[in-house]
Design brief:
Elements (H helix, E strand, L loop, with lengths): L4 E7 L3 E8 L4 E8 L6 H19 L6 E8 L3 E5 L2 E4 L9 H9 L3 E5 H14 L6 E6 L3 E7 L2 E2 L30 H5 L1 H13 L6 H5 L8 H9 L3 H25 L3 E5 L1 H21 L2 H4 L3 E4 L5 H17 L2
Parallel strand pairs: 1-4, 4-7, 8-11, 11-12
Antiparallel strand pairs: 1-2, 2-3, 5-6, 8-9, 9-10
Helix pairs in contact: 3-11, 5-8, 8-9
Amino acid sequence: MNKGFYLAVEVGRSKIVSAVFTMKLACMGRERVAIKNEADSDGILTSVLECIEGALARAEVTLNDVLGLGMSVPGAVSSEAGGGFAASSPRWESDPLRVQLQAELGLPVFVENRGNAATLGIYECEYAGKSGDLIGIFIGGGIRSGMILGGNLFRGASGWAGEVGHMVLKRGGPKCRCGNNGCLEALASRAAILSRIQAGASAGRRTILGEVAGHEIERAKNSDLRKALFRGDALVAESILESAEYTGLAVASLANLFNPAVFVLGGGLIRALASEMVPVILETVDQHVMPGTSKGLKILVSDLDDHAGLLGAAAWARRNRLSKT
């Protein structure tokens, strides 16, 4: 078998997924491994290697056939680690996972954060050749994002660009996990929605979300929100509407600043509530975008779902390898 494959790994907060892709980003085999809550950097490394081994076996490909490994990780990624990329995460802060994997596998490893990877995967597999500029926004428990400008990931001076979730949209707004107040993530994510619902319930407003979820409101899932919404929960409906409006404001601001041809929306919250949220997002954008910016602007929902991050990791490895040949 000729060399010509790329490995991709996506490290989430509770699971690792690995896949083998051809040069044209066709998936040949995929594996998934759960991360134990107590796992340290060594435990995560072991799980990643186990996941890679499973993906290779499913694809019937050996390491000798692989050109490189792309990895999608949570958290910010800098471009200052020995010419490569190292994730900023407490679980491998002192011993970068990239370096360990390169030593174990004998392959070049290229790391990117999950928002950038998902955006690149969507760009390469859904919009390549159609537009050189694309912004991806993925809304779930938090908010991930990425920017393609001129056909390339826009990473900024130190690799931290594209953090749309930490645009401040409301002065004195709710506290965000980044430490600021009023960030988009603190206003539009599922966590933000649940926080508003909990506050309303504590103030005496009626909600059935806890009953639907079967546990505390703070632990409700996207599917629980959808069930409560369709059972007529007014508090849930208001909070989801507010999330969509803030997302629309963010999209309009980014459109006015960068004038991209395409915005792609994704993430668990959007997948679960697209029919309710997207029309509000579009209406809000229409109200706030500049006339010249709105011309030809497309705001779409990705069809790739959770596969985008793996595709993007493989595409990132391919781009880096090809740039060195």
